[in-house]
Design a protein that fits this description.
The complex is a heterodimer of chains A (about 230) and B (about 300).
Chain A (H helix, E strand, L loop, with lengths): L3 E12 L2 E12 L3 E6 L5 H9 L4 E8 L2 E2 L5 H7 L1 E4 L11 H6 L11 H7 L1 H5 L10 H13 L5 E5 L7 H16 L3 E5 L3 H7 L2 E6 L2 E7 L7 H8 L2
Parallel strand pairs in A: 3-8, 3-9, 6-7, 7-8
Antiparallel strand pairs in A: 1-2, 1-4, 4-5, 9-10
Chain B lengths: L2 E2 L2 E2 H32 L6 H19 L3 H22 L9 H23 L15 E3 L4 E3 H23 L1 H18 L4 H23 L9 H16 L4 H21 L7 H12 L10
Antiparallel strand pairs in B: 1-2, 3-4
Classes of the chains: A alpha/beta (about 230), B mainly alpha (about 300).
Chain lengths: ~230, ~300
């Protein structure tokens, strides 16, 4: 794989006494969309949080653009060019939609400007003065994605962006992910819904019990369906 | 003589303005406490001592360096604010993630040490600080005569409260501060240096207390106990307004001052207790405070 943007080796993470990640290895190349699939509790969200430096204790190696980030504080990891869109979306109730959008500092040139973001997400423009948490679930998800597109971060960690949303919104988020891939962003995506994942991703990692157990190219997905059903228990 | 409910109007005006002046101090001090509590989750019991330090720094600037009142209004809060920054970096920072109680005990201890040192140096009666020349004398409003300095205190405190409110509600920095108050780890994961923001916020809250201290310096004597006398009511203000609420602190501060003033006119025996009666009623009806969000 050329142009490795993110290389994770032997990543371990703990919440208090519980050992959640037990040696995660994965790679993401520049410009790729890669998903993490797996059942609830397999460690997908923890993997994203560990890459971002948001777990209490982690060990192993997380290299971004060849630089080791395992010992860095989360703000320095963000400054290196990684951005997280968390599962709970993390929209701030005491900030307006516009303030939410402008909150993350720009870390590098190359982010989308506000007019472009409003073009991608017209609802946000209409409601820019509303309180952030007054938006619908779908709009909050758009806002959570939009605000990290502004920062110039090249690697976007999206944690279940389609969770609990209506099919029409899920389609819009799918279009958004394809659009940002076209613009050269790299995405590591956690998904429960592999039908959705198949429409956006280049490759899929499968997680079980805190490790990666398989990697499936999107082109091979049709042949791997039985295996995948076993993994995901669906 | 004009009376309202059997009390002379002039007495009423007098106590109302005194209430506004007290309310101005409650508002300024509880505002700093609210900002600090919101972001640091620390109940800053050293706030009264830092208010007192503000007054002493103003006195020291004048006595030793010949720096007058107007410059002291800016310099003293900076000096005490820097002291606060050091306090946060050296001590308070180490308690992050622990229960409220530890921060409360630490800052309470700091207050005792600071007040003890000042009492040792200056005695309990303290020192005198003159009203600046431009603010001496009475202000005739037609319906009443008001000491000019009291009017100035109310105006300056209101202006400072308004400026702080605008900074927090209307600026980019304020938005970051509000977001960090809600979810600091996520704000840090966006690339904001939250530990630095925390330190600066503590310094700014402390500087507000010192600003109030400079305003208070010419009113009575500058003495080591001036903070601890005030701080209990200020904590009641914070609780009534709602822990961490900016607007709540300002409105409640002025409101309590006025209620206290009115009580002095109509039921003087109750004036020392009225704040706590209000606090009991508010906590019974709205446990999160008047402007607080329920957790």
């Amino acid at each position: 794989m050329a142009d490795k943007l993110l290389q994770v080796r032997g990543l371990n993470a703990w919440y208090g006494e519980s050992h959640i990640l037990q040696g995660v290895d994965l790679d993401v190349a520049e410009g790729e969309v890669v998903t993490l699939l797996g059942r609830n509790g397999a460690g997908k969200t923890t993997t994203l949080k560990s890459i971002m430096g948001l777990v209490g204790r982690r060990a192993g190696s997380v290299q971004f653009r060849g630089g080791e980030t395992i010992a860095l504080r989360s703000d320095l990891i963000a400054r290196a060019g990684i951005a997280l869109c968390p599962e709970e979306r993390g929209i701030f109730a005491s900030l307006s939609v516009f303030e939410n959008l402008m909150l993350p500092p720009v870390v590098a040139p190359g982010g989308l400007d506000v007019p472009t973001l409003y073009e991608l997400f017209p609802n946000l423009k209409e409601r820019s003065r509303s309180q952030g948490t007054r938006l619908s679930g779908g709009e909050q998800q758009m806002l959570a994605i939009a605000r990290i597109l502004r920062t110039g971060a090249r690697l976007l960690l999206l944690d279940e962006p389609t969770e609990g949303l209506a099919p029409v919104i899920v389609q819009q988020i799918g279009r958004t992910i394809r659009a940002i891939k076209q613009r050269g962003f790299t995405v590591l995506l956690v998904e429960q819904n592999f039908h959705f994942a198949a429409t956006v991703a280049d490759r899929h990692y499968v997680m079980e019990h805190g490790t990666i157990v398989d990697m499936i190219r999107n082109a091979d997905l049709a042949n791997a369906m039985d295996k995948l059903h076993d993994y995901l228990g669906v | 003589m004009v009376t309202i409910f059997g009390k002379p109007l002039l007495l009423l005006y007098g106590q109302l303005t005194l209430g506004l002046v007290n309310g101005a101090f409650y508002a300024l001090l509880s505002l700093g406490l609210a900002v600090i509590f919101g972001l640091l989750n620390v109940i800053n019991f050293a706030h009264g001592a830092l208010f007192m330090l503000g007054a002493f720094v103003a006195w020291g600037l004048l006595t030793y360096l010949g720096i007058g009142y107007w410059a002291a209004l800016i310099v003293a809060p900076c000096v005490v604010g820097l002291f606060g920054v050091a306090l946060e970096r050296v001590l308070i920072k180490r308690l992050r993630g622990l229960d409220h109680l530890y921060g409360l005990l630490l800052t309470f201890g700091c207050a005792l040490v600071i007040e003890g040192l000042m009492r040792n140096e200056f005695g309990s009666s303290g020192v005198a600080y003159d009203i600046p020349h431009a603010l001496k004398g009475p202000l005739n409003l037609g319906f009443m005569v008001l000491p000019l300095y009291r009017a100035w205190v109310v105006i300056a405190a209101t202006g400072m409260c308004l400026a702080t409110w605008l900074l927090i509600e209307k600026t980019r920095l304020g938005a970051t501060l509000r977001a960090a108050t809600e979810n600091a780890p996520l704000v840090q994961a966006f690339g904001v240096d939250v530990p630095r923001l925390v330190t600066l916020t503590y310094g700014a809250g402390v500087a507000l207390a010192a600003f109030a201290g400079v305003l208070a310096a010419p009113m009575n004597s500058v003495n080591p106990n001036m903070g601890s006398n005030l701080i209990v009511v200020v904590f009641a203000t914070v609780v009534i307004g709602g822990m961490g609420s900016i607007l709540g602190s300002i409105v409640t501060g002025f409101g309590l001052g006025i209620i206290e003033g009115l009580t002095k006119v109509y039921y003087p025996e109750g004036s020392a207790a009225v704040v706590y009666v209000v606090m009991v009623i508010v906590l019974l009806l709205r446990p999160a405070g008047l402007f607080g969000r329920a957790a």
